[in-house]
């Protein structure tokens, strides 16, 4: 079984400097990429920032959760889509990207290191710290949405805390929201921007918009636990959306990682071209039923793979691979946070009564931004009379076929229409698609499981036959931090099981 390494008995500061390259205009930001932080007290913080920002794309390109929300299917070696494999991935994220973030913060705040050239050459301390806090918050968000409770408040302290406690997900959410707001106001426009940033090249205005956009998305993820206007989630969302530094409203401000190709390439260049992976018939049916032309770029063709097969799919006709070849070149950009997802979040918040505004305008803006992001022409009737129009679009009555009987993308109300467009707009980010699907449960009448109302494969081999709701903890956690882990598991209704739910997913 693969493992999530968060016990810190070994915390090698893994800096993958050999693979860190970005757009040609930003290569100078990487500084001395041959510096080994394990052996040098003079590690460049600009190199750490490069490591962190360059690594974020991998978190937005995950296959396994994309299988759970039926973006993808397994045409060759069915496994995860049958829910039979251990629900755990090895990331090394704590000893890698998260520790890099913490080192940036530590080196800029410790009087013994803050004046060193290796630190000051990375730009103003305030701006380095703010970027590290934003990246750290995003990384923790992706971790906790997979596992739930995790080491947080006692994590990243090295040998001083070898057995960190597992914080409740509710506390992690509140902590990362606070860090994001601190980061927005921690930047200093009057001082040198941070060096080594391969996403925005130190552009403070865009980093602030990204932080506020993340605050909105994270707050909305808690809508099951805090559904009411004026409650914690709503107040956090409203505070972020009204922040004077703004949020992402245009694709020009998207949180996007640009790859140069070659040794450092878009992860979908390999995963998308592999015949081990395909686009699920669930997804192609949904977009086909909406007459949604984004499918022409989101998949290599419209022949989706039946989800949850027990044997290899036929190769004739050719089944749909992930993304059209033009969208998965080795130098194709990867959008991590999009204007489309932010506009659709605003539409949902308006419908929930969290903020004032016109939900149809926000919905239409979100859909329009998504089509533009994919460089696809928006059909003239899509927002007016098609099955996707906001005022009365009915969606798609049946999707996926015989392996997922009962699956549909019906949208009898506005919240369901928003959720369906969110599912499409997040593609191919499997983690966000799966998380948003879990959150959307309840916006349709029972027995709907979420939007779209996807059903588990009839061939499921798990004991429950249900779609996975969370990853389980790895063997190393039981072996190396067992006492603290036992305490954490006692707080999970249903225990450490793939059918148990993370905190925000519990009704």
Describe it.
The chain is globular. The two termini are 31 Å apart. Helix content is 38%, strand content 4%. It has two domains: 1-29 and 41-61 and 88-222 and 469-507, Serine Threonine Protein Phosphatase 5, Tetratricopeptide repeat; 248-465, Serine Threonine Protein Phosphatase 5, Tetratricopeptide repeat. Helix 7 (204-220) runs antiparallel to helix 8 (232-241). A two-stranded antiparallel ribbon has the order 1-5. By secondary structure, it is mainly alpha-helical. Mean pLDDT is 90; it is low at 1-39.
Outline the secondary-structure elements:
Elements: H1 45-59, H2 63-68, E1 72-73, H3 94-109, H4 117-120, H5 125-147, E2 150-151, E3 166-167, H6 169-186, H7 204-220, H8 232-241, E4 255-257, H9 268-271, E5 278-279, H10 281-289, H11 295-298, E6 334-337, H12 339-351, H13 359-373, E7 395-396, E8 409-410, H14 414-426, H15 430-440, H16 475-480, H17 482-489
Antiparallel strand pairs: 1-5, 2-3, 4-6, 7-8
